[in-house]
Amino acid sequence: MTNMYTPLHHITLPDTVADAGIVMREDKLRGHLNLRGNPEDQAFTETVAKVLGVALPLQPNSSAEIGSTCIYWLAPNEWLLLVAAGTQDQVEADLRSALMGQHFAITDISSGQTLVNLAGAKLDELMMKSTVYDCHSSHFPVGKVVQTTFAKTGATIYKCTDGSFDLVIRRSFADYFFLWLKDASEDYGLAVI
Amino acid sequence: MLHIYCPYCEEMREEEEFSYSGEAHIVRPKDPKSLTDDEWGDYLFFRTNPRGLHHEMWHHSAGCRRYFNVTRDTSTYRIYETYKIGEKPIVTGEKS
Fold this sequence. Notes:
Order of helices and strands of chain B: EEEHEEE
Distance between the termini of chain A: 21 Å
CATH topology of chain B: Folate-binding fold
Number of helices of chain A: 4
CATH architecture of the largest domain in chain A: 2-Layer Sandwich
CATH superfamily of chain B: Folate-binding superfamily
Largest sheet of chain A: 6 strands, mixed
Distance between the termini of chain B: 32 Å
Oligomer: heterodimer
Largest interface: A-B, 13 and 13 residues
CATH architecture of chain B: 2-Layer Sandwich
Structural class of chain A: alpha+beta
CATH topology of the largest domain in chain A: Gyrase A, domain 2
Number of strands of chain B: 6
Strand order of the largest sheet of chain A: 8-9-10-7-1-11
Radius of gyration of chain A: 17 Å
């Protein structure tokens, strides 16, 4: 682990900006696993539910959470498992052995993307100018997951219980994402914690 | 900008999230070796280019990354329906 760097490790901003309207926090080195399988195959869904302790979300744009594990619906047969940092190898191995012989795919994509939490009083304004998706609370309830565009890159956006947004962004776009965020929140003040 | 209903995400989304993928319902010939060059060329390269109703594929590239079909009027851009791959269109322009 000593040589692991998060995609946004190079960012240097004061972590206390007076009256910052936007607060960014990178959920560093979280485990990201991509799981694919047939949602209509009961053996598959039941095995996964048994290993993870929670059923896979089958409704479009929904999610499930248990402890530090969060599952995002990505497509009818595809999910993103967000697990505690460093536990992805174990979770992958557990799922592999439990699903042995079944039709499924699991891929560790932790190094390809990162999770960023955006919060703050000016969050709605920031989202309005960053994404084409309507992120207003009347349209984007807690627990909803949406894959859409964010400026000129893509993001998987999740609404947390506290009203903040978790964004999954690609490692290769992390720098672009941060430069956009810095520019877009210039009027509001940006703090990185 | 078009507002497109993704049949997999079950939501209206902005056109920016999608990419166009050409004519839908093109069936690959079962036995390509028995075709003449003209027939194979037609299958590979030639597409209808109608003015009016068109069944076409779209890809939800920034969303669920699934292909689906759209019935759209090419002159007015009006979208009549979107439906999953493997399903049949309801709007065909033929009088029932």
